[in-house]
């Protein structure tokens, strides 16, 4: 039988709160419900295993940083950089998130139902089978995929027009897929647009279906929709800027 | 880092300082315990016609006589007293906070459109420029600024800010990068009407400082927020720009954004950038500023610092983190994160 514990985070500083969560994971708890969260940072940091952590409230900065395995589900918004350098596992945010979402992420999934702030997916990277995925249901802001080195960044734009400019500034790996057309003027130097091929669509379809299932959305129209795929124009966008051959 | 917080009640309903203390302490991770401060509007209704001068004396015996004499030259002191404080275990007191309620002599600034404010400005510049052991930290009507080197809770308790009631409050939690000992260094900064709190660091400090100093302001603390307060006073009071244009001059759109605007808007924005090139602030920053009639927030163009806006009934909140807003207003009705270049402007009902 699945083991569950509930922790009341009201007025608790993040250090003792995270100690309690860590202890529960060590004790083999499968589901940890954390109520009344109000900005406590570093929840789920460096945790391993396959527990599920339900964060009820607003998660503080650097949620699930370095996390490797568990699932974190946030009922409200998250502050800056959820999924920072995350290794594997999953973060599901039902609200919106601040700047630098999925900062340097190296594996696993971050799903945000609402909007994200500036510099989403900054320096996401990939290595062999490690391939991080960030999906945004709403809109992303400027410098989306800045210095991106790998992984998949998918923006569905369910709640209106995308506001992001300077998309893929310094991108040298990975791909950014955005529903609808993206004005060429919104791309940063070093990024280029490509049409989404059938092969690409087949690759992103399971991601869209998983996202839709997590948030109770109809996946079918999203899978069929038009997308713009943005990739690096070169593997070394700043080769001539900072170095001399 | 640094954490900033601002709240304004559009109908001037008063808030005591306890909620602001709690909101700011939610962001302690953004500070280093080496500076915090609060500024509030509407706290001195009994002296609403006087300029409230908050002064830090190195030593009240030696340094006060100089300030008394200077003030008497420029107007009259209605009342003066030590600011009530309550010693805190973790706060090392290194000056004596004092307040004057002062009426400037308007006839001493002939030809000025705002003679009283010119007198007060000159006084602040003169006293702060001298190494006379006195530093005026705030100088507005019905406004007071309370700051020290310490954690937000200790600074709040030292000044007993829960005893003050204001309709606009700004607060700042400092992540010190230099000069941690001096009480006048942390934000907020104030010059009569305007108060400023900032999260960040402008990289254009030198250019901006030379620009305001060419108009007679004197920057005595070496801190960018001081320059920002003077820039806002210069652009709005002296140059008559409305606050929208003033913010646009300080944090203008990039040239390529201007290129995409309709022609009339292009012309305006080009003119502003040419006229105020030296006032343009660069580097990472979020600024929240207030005067008796409004509270505004804006960020740098590249959005390198956070700004969260909350609204609930008559209350407008601007903060570095959503949690600070929710600490004071658990049932907040809307939370937004405005884009860079979209200033947030809240006005008090006339």
UniProtKB/TrEMBL annotation, chain A:
- The residues covered by the Glutamate synthase alpha subunit C-terminal domain are 19-184
Q: Where does the signal peptide begin and end?
A: none
- Alphabetical list of Pfam families matching this protein: GXGXG
Which SUPFAM superfamilies did the record assign?
Alpha subunit of glutamate synthase, C-terminal domain (SSF69336)
Q: Which InterPro entries match?
A: Archaeal_gltB (IPR035710), Glu_synth_asu_C (IPR002489), Glu_synth_asu_C_sf (IPR036485), Glu_synth_lsu_3 (IPR012061)
PANTHER family linked to this entry? GLUTAMATE SYNTHASE ALPHA SUBUNIT C-TERMINAL DOMAIN-CONTAINING PROTEIN (PTHR39673:SF8), TUNGSTEN FORMYLMETHANOFURAN DEHYDROGENASE, SUBUNIT C (FWDC) (PTHR39673)
Give the protein name, as stated in the record. Glutamate synthase alpha subunit C-terminal domain-containing protein
Organism of origin is Methanoculleus methanifontis
Automatic annotation (TrEMBL), chain B:
* Alphabetized InterPro entries for the sequence: GATase_2_dom, Ntn_hydrolases_N
Q: What is this protein called?
A: Glutamine amidotransferase type-2 domain-containing protein
Can you name the source organism? Methanoculleus methanifontis
- UniProt keyword annotations, A-Z: Glutamine amidotransferase, Transferase
Matches recorded under Pfam families: GATase_6
Is-annotated flag, keyword Cell wall biogenesis/degradation?
A: no
Where the record annotates domain Glutamine amidotransferase type-2, the positions are 2-350
